[in-house]
Design a protein that fits this description.
Elements (H helix, E strand, L loop, with lengths): L6 H16 L6 H9 L9 H11 L2 H6 L2 H5 L6 H22 L8 H12 L6 E7 L5 E9 L9 H10 L4 E7 L9 H15 L4 E8 L4 E3 L12
Parallel strand pairs: 3-4
Antiparallel strand pairs: 1-2, 1-3, 4-5
Helix pairs in contact: 2-3, 6-7, 8-9
Length: about 230
């Protein structure tokens, strides 16, 4: 072993070849992080740092869900690594958003559920998202309309309706997360859904679903027949 050829140089190349040949299939979670970090940290063995990241946050998904500040607290990670980690999450979000847009929600709801879970799962605070649809039930836009604290988010039906009008939307899919991991709707969730549906219906805007994202799962108001009777 020479100083000019440290052991991790060959290991990095082997990781890259494995990924190009078979994708992430068969990779340990720490190996995925290790491979990622090779592109932001040169001339250093990044395996210990990858394992440190995984040990600190507990899972691969939680690494990517972590805030910039939380990642920066891990000793050994510079701004390039933080940017790269957040970029992966951002690219994934854009990818799923593009797969969802222009799709008929009624015939293909899975793309919307998948996007909602990716966008909201793992957040440490509640966030309320609205997905806007046109008259053919195709997704035209989405946005996080409101963010709150660890167990509540204040959402006003009037604001939801005003935003729907600004996007020329005739249909809405509501979505928010439960940081506790349990997606079962609270009584407040049910009241909010009813209030938004009522306010929207006066302008012929339909609420097609309200999705609550938990840990590795979700709850759909439409699937459980909990939407107000005048909706849909």
């Amino acid at each position: 072993m020479t100083k000019e050829n440290p052991h991790y140089i060959g290991h990095r190349e082997r990781l890259r070849k494995r990924f190009l040949k078979s994708g992430a299939e068969g990779f340990h979670d720490y190996e995925i992080l290790e491979l990622l970090l090779t592109y932001s940290i040169p001339r250093v063995d990044v395996k210990p740092l990858a394992k440190k990241l995984l040990g600190h946050f507990g899972s691969l998904s939680r690494v990517f869900d972590a805030s910039r500040k939380e990642i920066e607290e891990i000793q050994g990670l510079g701004s390039a690594s933080v940017t790269l980690i957040k970029l992966v999450k951002g690219v994934g979000s854009k990818y799923l958003a593009e797969k969802m847009e222009d799709k008929d929600f009624l015939s293909c709801p899975s793309a919307v559920f998948e996007f909602s879970r990716f966008e909201l799962e793992g957040r440490s605070h509640e966030a309320f998202m609205v997905i806007y649809l046109n008259t053919k039930n195709k997704v035209i836009h989405h946005e996080i309309l409101q963010e709150g604290d660890v167990d509540t988010v204040a959402v006003y039906p009037r604001r939801v309706v005003e935003s729907a009008l600004s996007h020329h939307s005739s249909g809405l899919i509501l979505a928010h997360n439960h940081p506790s991991g349990n997606p079962i709707p609270s009584e407040e969730d049910k009241r909010l859904t009813k209030d938004i549906a009522s306010a929207s219906s006066t302008l012929s805007i339909r609420v097609l679903d309200h999705v609550i994202v938990g840990k590795d799962t979700y709850f759909s108001f439409a699937e459980h027949n909990l939407l107000p009777a005048n909706v849909g």
